[in-house]
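hey team, just a heads up i'm posting the complex here instead of the shared drive bc the drive is being weird again. everything in one block, sequence lines first with there labels, then the predicted structure for the whole assembly after. its three chains so it's a bit long, scroll down
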Amino acid sequence: MIWQFDTLLLVLLIVAAVISLRIKDLLAASVVFGIYSFLMCLLWAVMAAVDVAFTEAAVGAGVSTLFMIATVYQTTRRSSD
Amino acid sequence: MPTPFQILLHNFNYVCYVVLLMIGLHAMITKRNLIKKLIGMSVFSTAIILFYVSIGVNNGGDMLAGHDGRPVGNIPVLEHGIGHDAITHPETIDPRRYANPLPHVLMLTAIVVGVATLGVALAITQRVFQDYGTLEEDEILAQLNNPQENDD
Amino acid sequence: MRAFGLIIVLLTGGLLLWGVRDFPLFGAADSPANGGVVTAYYLQHTMQDARVPNAVTTVLADYRSYDTMFETAVIFTAGIAIFAILRVFDDRGGRRLRKSQDAPVKGDQYRIIVGTTSRLLIAPIQLFALYVLVHGHHSPGGGFQGGVIIGASFLLLAVARNLQTSLDRFPERRFLAMGAGGVLIYAGTGLLCMLLGRNFLDYGALQAVLPATGPEMARSHGIFAVEIGVAVTVSASMFAVYAMLASRGRLKDGL
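-- predicted structure starts here --
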């Protein structure tokens, strides 16, 4: 485990979570949440949990982002907060 | 006896998970948009999953491990030669060389189930939008309190 | 509400940070989680019991296969729940659909690039998914990952072309049947072990019906059988969830 890489990823993870929750456009929030999932996938690869990282790359970053985009497409992009 | 600063330095990961969990919880409580609430819920659950996976990390308790060439914390897939010996002599494998596979298994299924339940939550959100025409919690509550405005 | 939420959050976070002080050091080899007897058993006996070098696969599909079986059932249930929540069988009362399959839309001329690229990509993606599924014994991968990648290839087709193209290849009756069929494959493997005289999901019994040299290789094949069940359910459920969400339950003319 490389602690410099680990620390950088954790800081980026918190930044991505905050951006995804503060941004007013729901489509952009969904895409930033995809970035959050990819960062998490890297963090798990660093922690030697390769199976979990693989699952997160396929499920969290790929499929769940698409689910959210489909919902935003069928509802609205507007968000008050 | 390690000083508080050393504890913080070594458990920096845990502190970050607590921060992520707080971000997710705060979003679930205070955000009014339903999709924002769901993103907060996902951040909350991933913070817990991160914590769970990281208790299986094995680097000898040293954040700077691996610099002296000690093989610690490998991925839990046995190498070819070592694995072959283990068929007859399982005690030749040192479990301290590998990361703990048990949290990986539990969280691997939790991620897939989490996405499936996120899909159910998004489906309910779509139904709410079909009925009320908005995703904002306060506007939905206003329509619920004045049901005559909803008869269109 | 905002102040109240902030107080709750700070209280929770403060308590958790207080608890962090008592944790063992990050990544300690002798922490209670890592120093347990069970972990050592899993890592040492995965080759002897099932001839599978990837300890995660063995724990997932053999040592803790009840857990995985019911997780698969949960995923199938989620697909059925979305069917119950969203599915509608007629178009009356819905708002006008924005995109029809035949009507040209803005930017349609660019779709040929996206469409052709995705058509070239889908076959390698599905081949890779099958590789991930069958090679889960020796490398990261297995039923969950392979199933999600198969589902994602149909999702790519739906996004790049349209939902109808994807539904022509993976129609509603088929993905509902596959979702149930995967759980059936998993539970059926367990039941077969029971009929052969061992416990439920004790794959060692399968050596009577499979070309295995012993109970260890039979366990390896049994793990493979249940991984196929997991992959079938997961791929069908992922596509079902996307198809319902993208078309508001009408299964035509979605995103």
